[in-house]
Design goal:
CATH architecture of the largest domain in chain A: 3-Layer(aba) Sandwich
Distance between the termini of chain B: 31 Å
CATH superfamily of the largest domain in chain A: Periplasmic binding protein-like II
CATH class of one domain in chain B: Mainly Alpha
Largest sheet of chain A: 5 strands, mixed
Number of helices of chain B: 14
Radius of gyration of chain A: 22 Å
Number of helices of chain A: 10
CATH topology of the largest domain in chain A: D-Maltodextrin-Binding Protein, domain 2
Radius of gyration of chain B: 23 Å
Order of helices and strands of chain A: HHEHEHEHEEEHEHEHEEHH
Strand content of chain A: 15-25%
Distance between the termini of chain A: 73 Å
Oligomer: heterodimer
Number of strands of chain B: 0
Number of strands of chain A: 10
Helix content of chain A: 40-55%
Amino acid sequence: MPRSLTSIGAAGVLLTAILAGCGQGSDSADPASDATSDTGGEPSAISGTVVVLAAASLTESFTELGAIFEAAHPGSTVSFSFAASSELATQVEQGAPADVFASASPATMALVVGKGDTAAAPITFARNSLEIVVPAGNPADVTGLDDFARTSLTIALCAPEVPCGAAADKAFSAAGVTPAPDTLEADVKATLSKVTLGEVDAALVYRTDVLAAGDKVEGIEFPEATEAVNDYPIAVLRDAPNAVAAEAFVDLVLSAEGSRTLSKAGFDVP
Amino acid sequence: MHGRGRSASDTRRTTGLPAPLVPLAGIALLFLGLPILGLVVRTPWTTLAEVLTRRESLDALRLSLVCASLATGLCLVLGVPLAVVLARGHFPGRGLLRAVVTVPLVLPPVVGGVALFTAFGRRGIVGRPLDEMFGITLPFTTAAVVVAEAFVAMPFLVIAVEGALRGSDRRFDEAAATLGASRWYTFRRVTLPLVAPGVAAGAVLCWARALGEFGATITFAGNFPGTTRTMPVEVYLTLQQDPPAAVALSLVLLVVSVAVLAGLRDRWLTTGA
């Protein structure tokens, strides 16, 4: 009896030690954000880590803005998580410790706003439109949306559950084309990678993704793209652990410098 | 080690479970069991029937079961010979070969999917000639799901069978050989029956891993209802729009896999164990 009690105690100590160890690692941002409040809560004292959840299509432009932010505010770090907006919305709902959410569609942002998870009303900071993307050299001679109905081609589209897929649906109904996709990808970057790998003949992605992929792919514009323009809203989250820095990051995105970076990546800036 | 001249009751106590293991085992059980309990608690029972009888759910479940079984078959046909070569063969570079076998275990499955493209994709090492000569392309087909699952699951089978072979008594093989049995005959009638429980355990692990496979599948086989959308992919996509339905689907996958594994365990695993 005493022996088993001792071992329960030992196991408890071990577990506590393990948990404490884990806690130390993941909470490393906290001391930094405490430092922010210690300096008297001045809005100019921006430091610590800002966690930004952003749509996959923002990968390049936001990474660049992150570097600009860190340079402007020494001691601060911007940590990004890029994924399908709908997946990020689920993460926010599940209490992901994040400061800022930038979505590729107002509908996805509305999910987060509807749950009361944003600190203020979201602001639209960019617009993105769709473009046909084909592997370099356009091996299947794709010229327009009509080609997406050809069953002989291998075609990737975003799944209708994610914003780029919803936008693609709109474009196809505007064009009166019933596409024959071979795969419905979980986010726009997954769709793009099928093209850069040369595994599909054509896909529909954002114009910004075509630019980001460089010479591995070719983009083809199509008239119905104007029917499927996605607005990108951004908002600071209600439970933002580092709200001060979060506001500053959103300000940067909305600034002239932010607009320049976004336009360079292929976004339309309002 | 602790005392000398133990009484009978002392001996009985010391041959039971070692005390320090019990609480740790309890923690392990909670660690594994609580997330499953969480799924059950969060399951929307009122809409469960509706979610389960959806055409997409049934298609995905059927596809998952068929592909996991085919992948297990493929792993048995190719993996058992590989395990024998690893356990019994004598040749240089065997350690390296064993490391290659375990690569899919450590590779993030999504990377595994990209690796499969480089081998069997339209522009892959084997895929390109296959496409150019026969017009066969593997990605985005049901066959691609089987290939992706087999790639990720085969190490489980190979390692289990190799372990069983190393643990089995080679004298039976030698006895058969001295009695004039050919190597092939000995393998079929002596070696294989001896390691049958190991093969069965490996196949079960392999099947379970294949059933839950997500990353390599969605990368290499893509996602299309009826042909490549397996249950894990269906759950992932449903999670984006309707989290309660995704929980319901996860529970189905869980119940089906536990039922199949429990059924197989009664039939196979107890016979030799």
